[in-house]
Amino acid sequence: MKLASRANVASSFTIVKGAMIDETQSVFAAWDFARSKRANLDRLREENFIGAGTSTWLRDVAKVLNRRFEPDGRDHALVVLAKNGCDLDEWRPLLLWHITRDEFLLRDFLQNWLFPTYDGGAFRVRPEELHSYLKGIRKRGGTTEHAWTDTTLKRVAAGLMKMAVDFGLLRGSVVKEFASYHLPERSFLYLLHALREEKQSPQKVIDAQDWRMFLMRPSDVEQELLRLHQFRKLEYQVAGSLVQLTLPCSNSREYAERMVA
Predict the structure, then answer these.
(1) pLDDT band, very low/low/confident/very high, at 142 (cuts 50, 70, 90)
(2) d(CA 79, CA 83)
(3) 189 close to 93: Cβ distance less than 8 angstroms
(4) Which CATH architecture has domain 1-181?
(5) Over 90: is that where the pLDDT of 240 sits?
(6) Which helix (H) or strand (E) element contains residue 225?
(7) pTM score
């Protein structure tokens, strides 16, 4: 059964549990499209084929994956990539993008706190700097499932920072520093296809706030488009206010299949 959208739910649970990059890749690599999501997750709980250290962690992995993903819907291509051995460096940023389709808190943190902080020239960041931002979640359209205690606030701040480290945007332990991040070429092309499906207009694709999650400004996106045009990986033409963008595939699912062909 398809879950109702949680796109505006600020879930402390999923943030505190973390990115689960290796676990998600392992589960998706073994995914059986002939079975329902529930059946696949039941098999995970029964067989523990990811080697979870405790039954509690195994239960949490299944619960988080159930909340985050729709393998038969919007996340189908991500699963196809995992099943066909997509390189982890290319798959990881796509995992991040797919998680944020239905996870308000991570998306909002990356777009509206981490990127502006990076763009403002900051070099180091600390979890406690996030506290005032987190207290304003509702003002930005997020809803919490329950009131957060100070302890929850601190755990969520630490969890968001840790996820940024896990996805390569930050580095360090207590004090985090911005990493020198570069979105892999094929990951960039996949996201272009996915955003083109959502935004339609080439200019809206370039200006999409999604790129902020990878510490990219619209000018960075344009520069990469020009480079890929030069190498004939796509067609990108600008004439005044007219922007033309022609991609190699008709949609992200088709491009994903090309990535692992």
Answers:
(1) confident
(2) 6
(3) no
(4) Orthogonal Bundle (1.10)
(5) no
(6) helix 218-230
(7) 0.94
